[in-house]
Design a protein that fits this description.
Blueprint: H1 2-86, H2 92-112, E1 115-118, E2 131-137, E3 146-151, E4 153-156, E5 159-162, E6 164-169
Parallel strand pairs: 2-6
Antiparallel strand pairs: 1-4, 3-6, 4-5
Length: about 170
């Protein structure tokens, strides 16, 4: 009986050693996988941070170059004004023609840069998002409609830079 007992102990010890070796191998495997996942996480985090930095740089460049493009489109207007001022004995008609040509250049430059005039026609419904009523006047037009435009407004990409100054018809 002692032999069986000793043999059973050896068998249990052998099974325990095999199980222990398997558990140790599984632990080593899991530790390697954990280290690999931690490395992947750190790389992904670094890549996300680099992408964020690149996006911020691109936005800053886009803003800077947008202003440069706008300024560049206004240079011909400045050139025209300077050229007009160099003419010493210009007639009123020449000054008028030069001013009109320069104004056309300015309007074209503004439109190229998405700056559009807000100039409602008489009878247009008053829009508080685009118009600023300076006064209310009696009129044959329906109530709350534009009667006259005192000063054009301007919008850029559908965002109002300056509302149009208008008079509005009074309720009847």
């Amino acid at each position: 009986m002692a032999t069986n007992y000793q043999s059973t102990d050896e068998m249990v010890a052998a099974m325990d050693a095999g199980a222990l070796a398997k558990v140790q191998a599984d632990l080593a495997d899991l530790q390697a996988k954990s280290a690999d996942l931690a490395d992947q996480y750190l790389r992904a985090k670094a890549e996300a941070e680099n992408a964020r930095r690149r996006a911020e740089d691109e936005i800053a460049k886009a803003r800077r170059f947008a202003v440069e493009a706008f300024a560049e489109s206004l240079l011909p207007v400045a050139d025209s004004l300077e050229a007009g001022l160099l003419i010493k004995d210009a007639t009123i008609e020449q000054i008028r023609e030069g001013a009109q040509a320069t104004l056309r250049q300015l309007v074209a430059a503004l439109e190229r840069n998405k700056v559009l005039a807000i100039n409602p026609a008489a009878g247009t419904r008053f829009d508080p998002h685009q118009h600023q009523a300076i006064s209310v006047v009696p009129s044959e037009l329906d109530a709350n409609t534009v009667v006259t435009v005192l000063q054009k407004g301007y919008a850029i990409a559908e965002r109002v830079l300056r509302p149009a100054l208008v008079t509005v018809s009074a309720p009847k």
